[in-house]
Amino acid sequence: MTAGDGSLPAGSDPIATPAVPQAGLLNIANVLTVVRLLLVPFFLWLLFTDGTWWRIAALVVFGVASFTDRVDGQLARSRNLVTDFGKIADPIADKALTGSALVGLSLLGDLWWWVTIVILVREIGITLLRFVVIRYGVIAASRGGKLKTMLQVFAIGFYVMPGPIDLLRWVTMGAAVIVTVVTGLDYVLKAWRLWVDGRAGRTADGR
Ligand SMILES: O=P(O)(O)OC[C@H](O)CO
């Protein structure tokens, strides 16, 4: 979505009124989203390299990439830099980062596969569901969805972090899985309501 269409209000002086700034594709929020995507293969390379210091390096890269997720959203909203590209690329970049980390950890034997599969099914399923109901409305990220992302990031961080912190790993990942499933079901309910209301609206219009 652009910041505006750049047109001037009726009757306004085109010389005295400054042009409405438009959010270009190449803005700081989108650049951070792309940086996050580019960090994914670098993170995986570090994760699969044997040794404690490589693990710490992977943790740092994962932390930086996750931090860009917080910053780009805030910048986009506060500086009116929301674009269609950002709306689509931002959640994809989030899910590429957490999804690849989960698959990487399971491939290394550090994380149970069922955890990775449950989270991936929810994330991919809800992303597809959003596209299916888009003609009836947008299912925006809920507070629960944001909490879910935060819990996933901390849980993955603890799994990447070297050291005897298994209890911390299990507790945070357990919480992440529960919130992931519950928010997924909540989105399914929202999608169902949108679908039913949308179809009812279309029938009432006679279309
Ligand atoms: O649960 P979702 O799919 O709405 O994702 C939430 C976002 O990652 C929050 O930034």
From TrEMBL:
Pfam families assigned to the protein according to its UniProt record, in alphabetical order: CDP-OH_P_transf
EC code: 2.7.8.5
Gene3D superfamilies: 1.20.120.1760
Record keywords: Lipid biosynthesis, Lipid metabolism, Membrane, Phospholipid biosynthesis, Phospholipid metabolism, Transferase, Transmembrane, Transmembrane helix
Class of the enzyme per the UniProt entry, highest EC level: transferase
InterPro entries (UniProt xref): CDP-alcohol_PTase-I, CDP-OH_P_trans, CDP-OH_PTrfase_TM_dom, CDP_ALCOHOL_P_TRANSF_CS, Phosphatidylglycerol_P_synth
Record membrane topology: Multi-pass membrane protein
Annotated PROSITE patterns: CDP_ALCOHOL_P_TRANSF
Entry's localization field: Membrane
A Gene Ontology molecular function term of the record: CDP-diacylglycerol-glycerol-3-phosphate 3-phosphatidyltransferase activity
One of the protein's GO biological processes: glycerophospholipid biosynthetic process
GO annotation, cellular component aspect: membrane
Transmembrane segments: 28-48, 53-71, 111-133, 145-161, 167-189
Superkingdom classification of source: Bacteria
Family as reported in the entry's similarity comment: Belongs to the CDP-alcohol phosphatidyltransferase class-I family.
PANTHER family from the UniProt entry: CDP-DIACYLGLYCEROL--GLYCEROL-3-PHOSPHATE 3-PHOSPHATIDYLTRANSFERASE-RELATED, PHOSPHATIDYLGLYCEROPHOSPHATE SYNTHASE-RELATED
Full protein name: CDP-diacylglycerol--glycerol-3-phosphate 3-phosphatidyltransferase
